[in-house]
Amino acid sequence: MDELDRELLAVKDLEDDNDSFDDNSSKASTKSKLPLVNLDMHAEPPRETGFHRSTRVCLEHIRDALLHHRWQEAAEYMACYPQMLEDTTNGPSQSCKELTWRISTEILHHHPKSTLEDYNNIYERMKHSGVRHYLMICLEHSFHLLLHGHIEEAKRQLSVSESWRHGKESAAQFQRTKLIQAYRSLLDYIIWCDKKCTHSSTENSDSAENQDIRNYFRTASVNLKEILKNPGVWDPFILCYVEMLEFYEDHEEALKVLNDYAYDNSFPPNPNAHVYLYQYLKRCDTAEKKLMKVLKVLHVLVPSHELMLEYSSSLLQSEKSGDLQKALGVVLEMLDFACWRGNLVVWKRLEAIIQKLQREKDWKDVVFTKMSDRQGWWPALHFTNFHASKDSEENPELMQVKAPLTKTLCPSLTLKYTDWQAINGK
Amino acid sequence: MDYQFPEQLYPSFYNCGPPDLVLKHCAGNWGCYDGVRPQGGSGPLSSWTFTSRHQVRGETWRHTEPAPVPLLPPKNSVLWPSTPPDPQDFPEHMQNFFIDHCQDAFGSMSEILNEDLIFKQGTKKMSRIDSVYMRKMESLIKKGKLKKRPLSFPSKVLNAYGSMLSDVLPAVPPALLGSLLFEELNEQRERILFSEAATGGAMAFVPFSQSSSDSQSGCLLYPGNQGLDCLNFQRVELQQHGGTPPCLNTISSDLSSFQLKAPVRQISTVSLINNCCVAVRSDHLCGVWRFSEGDKPQLMEVVNTKEVATCISVSPHVLGEVLVASESGAVDLWTVGRGMQRVREEGENLYFNAKSSWRWCEFSAHPRVMVYADRTGVELTDIRVSPVSNHTLFRISNTAECRSGERLILSRYLADIHPFHHLITTQHSAYIMDERFPCVHMLKWDHMMQSPPMFCSTFPGSASSRTAKVLLGSHRSQEITLLQYSGGKAEACSSRGPPQALLRPRDSLRHLPVQLPHRLELATSRLSSPAAGLTCIQKRGGGEECICVLQLTEAGDIFYQILEPEQSHTPPPALEKNTISEINPAQQPPPSLRRISEASSDEDIIGPTQTQSFVAETQEEERPELDTYASSNESWSPRKSRRMKNLQLQVTVNDYDNDETVSGLDTGLNEETAREEKADIPEEPSRVEETTSGSRKLSDGVLVTWKQWLQKLMQKSHKNKPRPQRRQPFKITTKELIDLSSDDEARGEDSAEKERVENVRRDLRACMANRSLLVHSAVSASLGAQEVVEVPDAVKTDGWGDPTSERFTISWQGEGAWQAWWAENLGLNREKKVEALRRKRRREKEVRRASSQRSVLSSSFCSSLSYQSDLSDFSDLSGWSSSASLGAWSDSGGGLSQAEGSGTRPSLLNQGTRPSLLNQGTRSPAEPTPPPNTPKPLDSTPATVRRRKPQEDYLSALFAPQDDASQHGGYFLEEESPVLHAPPPVASCSSQSASLRSVRTGFSQSLTPSQSSQGRPGLSQAPLAKKKKPRMGF
Predict the structure, then answer these.
(1) Dihedral through CA B96, CA B102, CA B106, CA B108, nearest 10?
(2) How far is A377 from chain B (nearest CA, A)?
(3) Where is the composition biased (Low complexity) (chain B) (predicted)?
(4) Across the interface, do A72 and B688 touch by the CB < 8 Å criterion?
(5) B164 vs B919: CA distance, rounded Å
(6) pLDDT under 50 in chain A at which residues?
(7) What pLDDT score was predicted for residue B772?
(8) Separation between Cα atoms, residue B990 and residue B984, nearest integer Å
(9) ipTM confidence score
């Protein structure tokens, strides 16, 4: 893109302020607008010194080598690149430091002889090269330690970075601090588990040790509770928090936390939140009604979830009048999805539901209404010639279940599935 | 268990709001783990393990060749310029139009005006004056045509007419034409930068059920013809036999093609229940074909869309259901045979105004829930309820950590990898979304591609490889990036390894033998035409696993590259020349191919004398077996060439142009095998070394394929040259300069002339045989007496006294002299001269003082001169040196005074002129050039001299300098002696001593000729003395 374009666009940007999303690289055309990636990512800036030019070219080579997974070549080039950090003209930029860190770590990842010292070296050095990426590198450093089994070392790292403060923090930094705290608490929980485990094995009810374990719980719970207030996906955190709460029999708090996690609208619709709640309620032997309520919500969210099997079975067992129809709906919807289509359990469930339904008078109408919008595509989905041959080969039992159901579900159609069975099955 | 949802997801924040991230570096998310989650556990510390969302290592897949291989021979194709046009260039385009298509541009008006403007003289309709003008104009135009830039040809008349008629003459008003052109160029530029119509890709591969363990066959669907408006279904086979690199073969007998009305933009296929449903989208027409392994493709239905269709998508659930999205914002569910049903319509963009009418649609895990996408996000649309219910699957926002300006490029339902996964790409990232947990991405990559990825091909992990692979392809830059991920079922998704860039056709020329520049240019532009499609063939089971990535370019070429999983113990896959053919029976082509090989390979590839015609001939031979449409789709299997290798014949493919490449092939091969052998020696080659050997060489089979491809490309380009240029090349009429007519006549009539020419030829041959020169004497006998052209006379430079001429003259004497002249002229050596003058004065004073004592000696000056000349160097010094240190010598050696009779002495003593004497003596003693130290008084005279008789000057300078010196003496009566004119060549010397030395030595030599010349009549002392006199007298 040339200068003139940019200038024109700058003018245009001033003109329509209302469209803040309109990126400055989009064009003033009528048809389509797509801000492309800066095409001249590697283009020469108008003024640059020889030093900058050589480092820029060097970076291009590194990038190319990394993208093609030529690690050794990249490492050779990378030996030269860090001189960019000693740039005296206007100091190394933030991006340059982050770049150095990212590339060197990636190269280390693929170096056959990289050691933990090398990693520590690069993490520690780059961590202290700038305040803005301190937290991010700290976090990554602890991840690295965790992945390599150095849990205590990682916890020490996290504790150090937890106490790090630097002036005004941005939103991203705030979130990183929270994450660091949460991960630290996760490690507290792990130590708590460890202590609890050794404690129970020795069967020595020493109150001092109990207190020690409880301290771990307390430090962990503060931060875990804190992070659960922020919208996000906190599956590992909430699981360990609930486990600790359960251990200390704080059921009220556990239920509250799980309910918030599942039903807070600011949170993303995480199916696991409902699953955790359901599992917790089930552990606590809560009434069937409450469990059904949770599953009902989950059914709306994820009609294909495997808990729907339990939902349908509890609906089937329920004495309420409408529940059987609901169960039919749930199972039919499960069968809509490809992943359940060949599942014998579901088909059997459907068979059971139909059988129970047939005791009622208007069962044909109920089935018809449920099947009315499926008439067009269910046969193609389940009851073709191909399905028949496949089922008979792979799962004859399934065929036995499916074949009688075709007549019930699609009474108006003559299906090849049954024809095929008629011809080949006998 | 496809229905499982991961028990634990990686922790992340959920940020709503518009995207605000601005990434400044280009490292993407290299080096990041991007979150970890605990696994196992609830026991002691050691039982806990962690997994990261981004896992460092993925599977390593290596290319079998360092460059992609063309699958089909090159077809004719129209290439767009690789650089996008600048809309600001529209005046240039207008100018070209006016010149190249003047009939279209001005035809109508010029016909009307034709009656009034008469270009020929003598017509009665116009006034005489006007017709004269017109005549002038005609000649101007004629001249203008010859000019490179005709419109810049200056002419008042033309300008006047131009301003008068400019708004009348063109058929299309220039302002309108300009604005339209600008618009068009803008659009072209955008299309070249990013062609959204091509999203999805116009190539697909439908695998057939495994035919054998070591091959994977299937049907490749790709557009053919120049305009990519012919849909081809061709059977291809990816073959791999133990030990040899896998290769892709086209089976030309099994090809059917359909001519369409518009270029193919997108091909979407689904293989269901042994049937394959193919939906093809062009701008306004969409068609559905159906075929299976046994059945030929069969067109089911075609629909015409009112608006430009932007997406077509075949249902993976129900055969014959197709979704079509168009620019109006509508998505229709097209059930083949039952018509279209509108499922959704959006006038606006989904989440914000992206000013884009591009829409996309896909199926999802539920057969009645559609994915509806535009540039701002993706929605899941449930079409079962009458006002469709929508919920967000993905949106450009802070949640997805989008950068500002990020837009959605492609959405793809990954049915074959995971029934609930969707791939979403933007310019910067690729996301894996799980439709069960909308809004939050399961995985995010920074794909680090330069242009946005708009093609995608995926394949699930097989038994041996656990990772699912996603291939992203970009349009303009031809990039292909391989991403790997795992999980999504019981475990959360995690990406494996960093993105891997695959090979691009445009980079392949690096690995090929060097091409001639014009061929290189052609090949480069052809190879760098934007990509138009991407697909891959996965060979699993049976022998070794491999994947073949095919890329279609807009020029209609298909390139493929084969990747194999890296196994540390297997040697590199390149062949060893001799062994394979013997070991491997599979080298013999299968029956379907053998015929082609025999028909074409032996003659046309190996033959050392290759003509262009063979291509057409062999194609004719092949044709009968092919389908009617498959005129030139013969396969190009590498095995052909390998077979040739077996025959041990030298492959000379390109011999008429670059035979050095052929030899290069052989040596390259030898080197390679040598290297291979060497590489095999160490037990465990270092892994890094192995992976980083980026500069591997192409195997010979591929090289031959490439050479054939390039050669055919060149032939094609020769056949269809660009249309003849209407502009005439710049010509100079030489009729006036050289009159050949008489010569022609003579040649035509005179047999004697012919005979003479024959004679000359014979002589020439004889001379060549004897290795002697053909000189005039040898020729003259046969040619007869030839008029002897006299050699021009010597140049006489003395007539030219102006500084420029002087300088030129001096420059002939060498660098030193020339520099000295400048020093002299610019007064650089003024101080030196002043110093010398002072010394001279001093000496003169001394002399004068002493003269009273030595008056006797002074009278005998002449004799002392001759005496000195006879003496050695020593005496010279004593006599002539001006150096102050030698002052004593000079004092004693020569008694000098102005009063003495001979006038030469004082002037010779002048330091500036003395060395010139030397020069004159050695070169042309009498060459008369005005003295440089007195240029000003000479200014007028030489000019007049030159004007009067320049030719005489030439001649005299060349031939008779000495005679002329006396002859010309008259001109110089008022001047100093001609002997004294030249500048001192030593003046340039910086050190005084050096100059001194040269002066001394030079002087001794110089004196001799001047003295000897004294006795000669030509350079008599008398006129010189005469000349001096007036000067001496002032």
Answers:
(1) -140
(2) 7
(3) 987-998
(4) yes
(5) 70
(6) 1-32, 39-41, 425-426
(7) 79
(8) 13
(9) 0.89
